[in-house]
User: Fold this.
Amino acid sequence: MKDPRSFKSWLIVLIVIHTVVACAGFFAPYDPIEQDRKNPYVPPMRLHLVDAQGYFHMRPIVYPLKLREGSFDEYEEDRAQPEPLKFFVSGARYRLLGFLPSRLHLFGVEGSRIYLLGSDAYGRDQFSRLLFGGQVSLLAGLLGAGMTLIIGLCIGAIAGYYGGWRDDVLMRVAELFLALPWLYLLFALRAFLPLAVNPLQAFFLIVVVIGAVAWARPARLIRAVVLSAKERDFVRAARGFGATDLYLLRRHILPEAMSVLLTQAAMLIPQYVLAEMTLSFLGLGVPEPVPSWGNLLSSLQQYSVLVSYWWMYLPALAMVPFFLGYLGLASALQERREAYKIERRSLGSLM
Amino acid sequence: MRYLLRRLGHAFVLLIGVSLLTFLFATLAPGNYFDEMRLNPQIAPEAVAALRAQYELDRPLPARYVAWLNSTIHGEMGFSFAYNSPVAPILISRARNTLMLTITATLLAWGIALPLGVWSAERLGRLPDRLLSWGTALLLVIPDLALVLGLLVFAVKTGWFPPGGMVSIDFENFTLMQRVRDLALHIVLPVVALVLSVLPLLVRHVRAAVADVLGAPFLLAAQGHGIRGRTLLYRYALPAAANPLISLFGFSVGTLLSGSLLVEVVMSWPGLGPLLLESILSRDVYVVIGGVLLSTLFLVGGNLLADFLLYWADPRIRRESSAR
Assistant:
């Protein structure tokens, strides 16, 4: 991954994923909480290009699933009614990006319902739930990481810039937070907040809890950057010209911390999405019926689901590209930082 | 020796700090164990108040903290409302199971990561090394939750391993050999989940540390003196790479403890994880505080062990501490 282009390609991967999730209403065929009680636990439908008579179609077709004779949870394809896949169909109402009302969906079928990833116990489309659940989980990750970085930035800057007793106290507290196993800390914090809340409150609650837990590591990194930056000559010169503390921090010191912040963000966001997933999976996060990547998987806690409905596990695999994107981005950023450091060091020795 | 004493003192202060922190959160929290009773029309408000008074929930924070410290010194760690008994005995039986899991996983993970990382660093940039790097990257991006659930699906589909729990139902009637076998079968899945979740990180760090040392000038000099092969690797390279790895050891204990929380709940391993979840849901504060504190104790213990190892392995630290 030495290629400088790798940074850009990972960024593109991530932008695509985030766009699809942000516009979930358009890419998902159905509303995530719309139930279809007649079709519980439908397995994923297959897209066919060749129909039952052996004819080839340019447009993919699906066969609606019907219960097999004499069984109550096994489905088979109803070959008599092929349903061509239609693009840009009008369906359930949604708000694009939260404000643009629309009914346009990327794809859908007209006669019956299409379940690309199967359906859950209430006949809700797992594919739609995956996309909409991504909105909750990604937003939690992004907001939580933003909050952590702001807290870390403030504390790191204060500790590094002012030093003295402030530095001592803040860094001792940081060590305290670093010492706790973070999931236990997350649990402990969540334990002491109200349990029965509505989805929106629950969402902000876990964002705050997740964001408040891991500020210690970024704070320490930023403190180190500030410590070295405030001794640089141009910073001293600026201070000599009468620059205030706030001006110095804002204009001269914090830009130095930018690369640390970016790398930390790339590492924290997937970690926080994972944290949200864990909390929601265990029933401490975003409650049903609002989907999130965590409670999408929580039905797998039931033994019967685990045994009979394997496609309930598919969303877990669908999340992998997201984590891969952030891992790639983080390592590309880190390499850039190291290259920059080496560059500066060699420049320094030249002069 | 002063170095070790200082680390020990540090650990103690840390534990006190954590207990204060969790206590603070516990009191700031809305609601308590008896809230549900207050909604019940059959129970008089006076009775609830009396219960609160009996368990000293109506006293101010400092008084409760002191009372809790007192009971901790006497080996009780407060009182569990749900279990109607002191917290410590409940915690200890659960903690034993968690320790069994995490210690096995730690040993196994390091036992695999060390040779694998060294092996990969020796072949830096060549095909096996690159394959391994891709493998660890792949493991790294699979979310823990997906990993654990995937293993469960695997266990259920193949039927090779029991899909949860720690012992079979008729464990009591087993002979000793059967018991060992039963336990071993049950522990495989959670341990594999834990090892797989922490392994990629360890392998990558071991590889980086060893590769760093292998490129150092003093190894080139050693090679020039005709030292090569295993002697070079184990006698000269590994001790020099040990320092960051030992620090990583302390860190890996923390990661495994956090990881085991999830693994235990999903695979219904009767450790601290399910207990903690259960007590959170019922607002059994002292059990929560005790659980968090105990996990911190394990983590601090792991870090102390790392410090001891570091003292033993790194002559610079020994000299520094004796010079002062």
Summary: Confidence is low (pLDDT under 50) at residues 346-351 of chain A. The two ends of chain A are 31 Å apart (CA to CA). Chain A touches chain B at residues 172, 175-176, 179-185, 187-195, 274, 277-278, 281-284, 294, 297, 300-301, 303, 306-307, 310, 313, 316-317, 319-320, 323-324, 327 (CB under 8 Å).
